[in-house]
Amino acid sequence: MRAEGTPSAATRGATGVRVAPAAAARPAGDRPPTSMSTRRHRAFYMFASPWIIGFLLLTIVPMVYALWLSLTTYDGISPHWRFIGLANYRELFADPVTWDALGRAGLFALTSVPLSIVAGLGLAVLINRPLRARALFRTLLYLPAVVPPVGAGLAFKSLFDQNSGAANGVLNIFGIDALGWLADPYARYVLLMTVLWAAGNVMIISLAGLQDVPRELHEAARIDGAGAWRTFRSVTVPLLSPVLLFQTVTGVIASVQTIMPLLLAAEPTTGGVTAIPQSNYMYMMHVFAEYFALGRYGYASALLWVLFVLILVVTGLIFRFTSGVVFYNVDPEAKK
Amino acid sequence: MHTRADGPLSRRRFLALSAAGVTAAGAALNGCALPVAGGVGGSGETVTLMVKAEDISPELIRQAQRGLGIRIVTVRYDITKLIAMLTSGNPPDLVRGVGAVDTPYYAARDVAEELDPYFAASTVLKADDLDPVNDLWRYDGRTQGKGPRYGMVKDFSQDSMYWYNTAHFDEAGIAYPPTSEPVTYEEWLDRAERLTRRRNGQTIVFGGSYNGLYEATNLSTLTAAAGGSLFDDDLARIDFTTPEARKALGWYIDYCRTRVGPSAIQPDPNAWDGPTYQAGRMAMSNSGYWLGGMINTDEKLAKVSRLAPAPVFAGGARVSPCQGGTGFWMPRKARNKDAAWRVFEWFFGEAPAKARAGGGWGIPSLKSLRPLMPAEHDHQRRVLAAQEAELEHFSVISFTPYITAEGFKALFNQVAPAAMKGEISVDTLAGRLNSTINEQLDRGKEQVG
């Protein structure tokens, strides 16, 4: 409400430039109209706030708490825990079990990520073709990816049990003696199979990427005399490269954090910590054992922080070394 | 910070407000003291039990609420949640625990309530009626089995006793082990090897399973049977290189190497012997009386099953401990201790205890309830006779307060499979186990103080 005789909200000054009225000239209680920009800001933060608050509460606060824990000997309930500075980190870097576990996780990432990307892409290329019952094939191939990990883990465990599993039944048909699939040295291969079995996730993303490749580019390549393989290599793969990069980064992060199939395929116990084959004793299993079996909250938190930093570094390196081969339709450097 | 009520919400201002919000929310969460679903609802006759689903059925809870007039809420047992509740000062009123391994751990950390005054005043749970197995829940700061009581066993087994299936012995032409006198561990393993049947790399029949409940208690028991002790007097060091511990470890590694039963290098997908034994694929199982609960429900299996005493080592002592002793303990900071004790009395001395005693899934932990153990059929009377004779050889074997059984298992399984596969010698294994486990014991000792 504006008092009588006061200037309008926007008047022209002596130079004719539109200026805002002086605040002093406004009576108390009078509010200036909210600009469009302010309203937009307000709306943005209002709608984004649930996520931002959740991020702060559920990600940043626990991370800072874990960082604090990593500097202590805290074990949950013992009365004499203390601040030890970087001792957990020093121990971690000198601990051969940690390095072995990290090495196994790295090796697993190096094998499982390329294999699952190639498998997923291969399947995507297959079901992107005009086939009869294509929808059915897509559904069937994607089905393993929607099976809950617990169900999948238990199914694989039954399938590969040495004495009653179907896998050894098949081997016996061919006169081959049963193998101890769930023990060393075969346990790592079973783990790899569980990952490849669920390649439907990778397939769906690759399929979406394939369908985004402009048809006219394929036609142009064909007119230029390129065969199917050359077209795939020189047209499809470059256009799919952002998708492949995404799958590589998320795949590496997921594979070094693998724990659920390890727990499920191992010998279960009353307390939850399992007798896991050495070849599957990977980094997150080590973290799990330190947290829940040994109660070393501080040391396990240090392990997680190191893993966090390692993932950041590896992700950065992947971006760095793929910058020359990833083709973006949209400039990734664009700010707006 | 100066802010304008009507100005645009700058990023800086928004983040500042968010940080304040986070702090306030954190304080609020802390104030709520981790109110888990179904947690304690303030003062009054409400008791929170942290249990596993199999410990107490919803029907039993309804009965308790009707009979005692106390509201009971349950929280699923989860060690992480328990620690969170203990550290936030809002623990459950009663917590399930495994007496053989949990008593020293919680008592030494001063988080468990001493229950002696409650037992002294109780008309339901009288001290002279308590089976000696309840000593698993006593700890005097140095020795398990002595000192104040911190909990009670709901029912138990002498877990080194073993069941055997006579049909497999008949098939292999091997004489049955006696049910009144123990065989030696060497004889047991020899029989297990002869009873094992394999075809095309698959084990059709496991000759015998001898894993115990935990590696830690199993190896402690084996060492005691060899005449020694796995831990030193103050329970702060472990030594696998003493002759007795070396003998025990060597025997267990032989058991694993010969693959006569499940182990870390030959995992059993069922996780326990029950289904394999019931399926007729296991000739012997060291599960103790407890397995009778399952065997009794299968008449054909019950008729061919025998319960035998715990084996001995030549020249060693005859020991037959309980490696579990699952029961409840009361956190020191529990809010409704008197009501919790009333539930405790009901659970361990009244209707649920009587029902458990008659079920055959364990020996009752009150001597007065022993007449309720199943003895209707011949096979039940036979089993009962073997069990009653074995009770004379019960003893408590102290476990260390400085590592959990799960921690022991995790460290053991990092090192031992190489020996089970014959890649390293038992002596090398003993040295490595000493090194890794003692390191953890040192940490535990420092934290307990």
TrEMBL record, chain A:
Name of this chain's protein:
Sugar ABC transporter permease
Membrane spanning residue stretches: 44-68, 105-127, 139-160, 190-210, 239-260, 305-330
Q: Please indicate which superkingdom the organism of origin belongs to.
A: Bacteria
Name its cellular compartments: Cell membrane
Family affiliation: Belongs to the binding-protein-dependent transport system permease family.
Q: What is this entry's stated membrane topology?
A: Multi-pass membrane protein
The record's keywords, sorted A to Z, are: Cell membrane, Membrane, Transmembrane, Transmembrane helix, Transport
- Where do the record's region annotations for Disordered lie? 1-36
One Pfam family hit: BPD_transp_1
| The keyword Chloroplast is annotated on this UniProt entry | no
Regions of biased composition (Low complexity) lie at: 12-34
Is the keyword Metal-binding in the record?
Answer: no
Provide the species name: Streptomyces akebiae
From TrEMBL, chain B:
> What SUPFAM superfamilies does the record point to?
Periplasmic binding protein-like II
Per the record, the domain of life is: Bacteria
Q: Which residues form the signal peptide?
A: 1-27
- Keyword Signal assigned to the entry: answer is yes
Record's Gene3D superfamilies? Periplasmic binding protein-like II
Which keywords annotate this record?
Signal
Which Pfam families does the entry mention?
SBP_bac_1
* PROSITE patterns the record matches: TAT (PS51318)
Listed PANTHER family: ARABINOSE-BINDING PROTEIN-RELATED, DIACETYLCHITOBIOSE BINDING PROTEIN DASA
What is the designated name of this protein? Extracellular solute-binding protein
> Which organism was this protein described from?
Streptomyces akebiae
